Structure to design on (338 residues):
């Protein structure tokens, strides 16, 4: 059985009475309520969620837009699954559900989001992979859809955001390597226009300039966020006439491939070339042990969810102290790689 009308006909009770009984209204006597609930369970009644959402003016769903593609490895999935766990921990307090919106790397993210918004199935949005100029922000702002971003952008409509502290990672990495005698330091950054790549590069160059050094363009290598991307970057480094003595890797999924590629080229990590990267679950199996930056991903997810809900009138009173804009700390974990 599906639908409240069929349930009402079966019980020979008005649709209004059945609806009030199912929703726990006090004007329905206990015997009628019990009859309705028992019949609903026995006959497999399924609430019409779209109709309920239309009446309430909300869907109880929050969308999280992320990018997928054949060049992206499972490392990215590990990152987001840990974040999702924290997000849903918060949403469960309020009967909300998180839905991952997977935009293929072959599709324009702006067009994808327009299609999602047109369907109107989400009460709020979370955006990742923020670009230097990101038109998605303006679309959601025009449509008055609450949203929070995992990452910053030069596009600013006053939206809340939480971003990893890439400035801190860049400055700590560069100063650490310079203090250890490195003068030619390479950087592996994303191939696309992600804002984090610009932030990281700008801070690396500023920190090196403070130390009297430069970061030549040839040492800024664009790498796909995958093991294959890291392996290819290692080949580029090994082929340089004047190789860098150290490399900092911005994507966690690239590190393993970089290790393998350097080894194949006869270069020993930690001896011939220093490596600093972001932690991923596979990093624990690398030898030498990776010097890396760790992030509390579940806590990050909790903070993202609470920040978003603090902007939504139905939930804002629960989160009066949620930070609207925040750099999320990363902790340096000592290893032998750099």
């Amino acid at each position: 059985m599906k639908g409240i009308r069929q349930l009402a006909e079966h019980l020979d009770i008005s649709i209004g009475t059945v609806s009030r009984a199912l929703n726990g209204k006090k004007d329905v006597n206990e015997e009628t309520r019990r009859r309705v609930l028992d019949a609903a369970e026995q006959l497999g009644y399924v609430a019409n969620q779209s109709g309920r959402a239309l009446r309430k003016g909300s869907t109880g769903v929050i969308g999280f837009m992320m990018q997928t593609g054949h060049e992206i490895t499972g490392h990215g999935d590990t990152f987001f699954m840990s974040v999702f766990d924290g997000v849903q921990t918060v949403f469960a307090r309020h009967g909300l559900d998180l839905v991952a919106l997977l935009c293929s790397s072959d599709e324009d993210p702006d067009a994808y989001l327009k299609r999602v918004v047109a369907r109107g199935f989400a009460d709020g949005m979370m955006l990742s992979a923020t670009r230097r100029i990101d038109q998605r922000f303006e679309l959601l702002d025009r449509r008055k859809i609450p949203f929070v971003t995992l990452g910053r952008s030069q596009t600013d409509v006053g939206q809340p955001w939480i971003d990893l502290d890439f400035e801190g990672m860049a400055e700590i990495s560069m100063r650490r390597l310079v203090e250890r005698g490195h003068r030619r330091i390479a950087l592996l950054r994303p191939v696309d226009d992600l804002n984090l790549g610009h932030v990281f590069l700008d801070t690396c160059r500023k920190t090196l300039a403070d130390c009297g050094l430069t970061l030549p363009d040839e040492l800024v290598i664009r790498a796909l966020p995958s093991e294959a991307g890291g392996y290819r970057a290692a080949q580029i480094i090994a082929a340089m006439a004047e190789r860098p003595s150290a490399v900092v890797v911005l994507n966690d999924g690239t590190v393993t491939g970089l290790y393998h590629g350097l080894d194949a080229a006869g270069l020993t990590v930690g001896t011939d070339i220093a490596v600093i990267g972001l932690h991923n679950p596979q990093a624990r199996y690398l030898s030498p042990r990776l010097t890396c930056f760790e992030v509390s991903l579940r806590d990050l997810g909790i903070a993202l969810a609470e920040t978003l809900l603090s902007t939504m009138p139905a939930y804002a009173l629960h989160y009066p102290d949620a930070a609207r804009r925040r750099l999320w700390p990363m902790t340096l974990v000592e290893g032998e790689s750099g």
